[in-house]
Amino acid sequence: MYLDPNVTTAVKILVVGHFGVGKTTCIGSISEIEPLRTEEEITEASVNYDDLSGTPDKTTTTVAMDFGRLTLSDQVVLYLFGTPGQERFKEMWEDLSRGALGALVLVDPERLDESFAVLDLVERFGLTYTVGVNRFQGTNIYPLEEVREALALSDDTPVVPCDVRDEKAAAQALITLVNHLLSLLS
Amino acid sequence: MTDEQEPEPEAELELTAPLVPLFVVTGGRGLPPSHEYERTTLVSAKQDAAAEARTLSPEAREVMNLVADGFLSVAEVAGHTRLPLGVVRILLAELADGDLVLARKPVPPAEQADKELLSAVLDGLKTRFGA
What we know:
The complex is a heterodimer of chains A (186) and B (131).
Chain A: E1 9-17, H1 23-30, E2 36-45, E3 58-71, E4 76-84, H2 90-97, E5 100-107, H3 116-124, E6 129-133, H4 144-150, E7 159-161, H5 167-185
Parallel strand pairs in A: 1-4, 1-5, 5-6, 6-7
Antiparallel strand pairs in A: 2-3, 3-4
Helix pairs in contact in A: 1-5
Chain B: H1 9-16, H2 22-25, E1 42-45, H3 58-66, E2 72-73, H4 74-81, H5 85-97, E3 101-104, H6 115-129
Antiparallel strand pairs in B: 1-2, 1-3
Helix pairs in contact in B: 3-5, 4-5
């Protein structure tokens, strides 16, 4: 359960995507610990504008997030945070994106339109990302270039197949992301 | 007002018994600044802290017991104790004030794009997954 006592460097990568895209499955496939869940309260403006004062009510909601851990060397540990991609969670995104190496954006080829809000947040928070196209049972593998085009991704954004149930595929998507991060440095 | 409108004592007990307001758990303290006790800050109890832990609130003691034998991230402390992340951060700040826990801060945002660090992450992933 405990980290190696020599581990001094903790880094994080966000695994983002819309509801049901496979974030938790992806994290569970590669995490060295059983994925854990944090619960936290966020405030959000409610849509009730009947209030005579003219100011929208603020309500608090509890958001649950799953995360996993990977010890990468004697000194370095990587945390993977599943991050919901809705606009109303942007308060949380501020915390999560601070100090994150980058993001793995999971997309469902059958529901690509639901990924626009997610990509918008990732770009707004300045995160470098790689797109992982999850393959769902019974669906054909989509040509990755079609996904790139549909999501209007730039040419240098890596798009990789990512069957989130498969440890190797999930790991390969993370490796692609880190390679991409390194390529931007040189 | 009739007696019938009074809530039944048992029903009331059942509703309120398991709920301790969060401001009681945290002793009324506010959240630490957002860059302190972040999700990826690593925490561990100091070696001789066990004796003092006996005087703490049950929740703070639970946190102390959890990190008594090694380092865990703040997120893991929240995950294992099932306490809300904000509460865990407040409790850890309190425990650190009492000199009961050690904290290792995560890599600062300015250093996250460090080539050496990214290479170490890449090598670690490759070694681990044989890619």
